Amino acid sequence: MANKYNIESSEFQALKTASKKMFHIITKQLNVNTAYVARRGDTAMTVLSSLNQEEEMVPEGFSLEYSGSYCRLVIQDDNEAISIVNGSKDELTRELEVTSEIGTKGFLGVTLADAKGNVFGTLCVLDKEEKEFSEEDIDYLKSMAEVLSYIIELDQTKYNMAYLSVPIIPITKGVSVLPIQGIIDENRAADITNTVLQYGSKHQMDYFIIDMSGLVILDDEFPHVIITLVKSLQLMGIETIITGISPEIAKHEVNNMQFKELSAKKVPDLESALEYIGFYLTEKGESITS
């Protein structure tokens, strides 16, 4: 199962803050001990935020293999909701290890999606007492999940906004660094290409160091814009040096002939790139010398 989100669970700060405030209302409205939001990962469900009124049943950070979780039942249900009166007796949950581990009886969970409809995880409540949830209860929890869907989008947008600019760092005359961060989609690819080529021409660049240590590979697809950018710079007479090729990138691009055959120097880090050009970093943060 592919993870559609490129930010770590710890970075969903808006979702955590908003959900915690909502949990107080939800647990009171549905008369339950616990409410929580779980994020679906590649193989497991992880609790991002939770509220346990009297007894701690689901702590934050709790992670459970997807196949053995209640959340799987919620996400796979046609109605995107599961209501269980007694988890220890219900045929869907009585054999699950988590039922006896947590002591779950009453349970209600709904699918939590982002504003585009992509499944993020679940919003759930549970209790150690039997609970019979009504259709109104289910609709209520779904409405709370809908509110949270926009918070998820906010977190994702805030994360992506940090990478919308094209930060070119001048090192010395004729030498600059382009740190590539995050995901490169079609729009951002066009921005990077236009900005870098115009900058290279305007400032009469000799070398561009492209640092890929912050690049995020999505769906195992290397961004072709980097290959295009290197070739375009070379046509302009600007030599390109590539740094920060991570083990993950190397593993995926080992058979990419276009990437392998690029006539660009590839070095481990910025210092190696500068040494290749003929510049050296002096100690104690002093300026670069040739």
From TrEMBL:
Residues covered by the STAS domain: 165-251
Pfam family membership, one: GAF
Domain of life: Bacteria
SMART domains: GAF
Signal peptide (UniProt feature, chain positions): none
PROSITE patterns per the UniProt record, alphabetical: STAS (PS50801)
Protein name, as recorded: Anti-sigma factor antagonist
Phylogenetic lineage: Bacteria, Bacillati, Bacillota, Bacilli, Bacillales
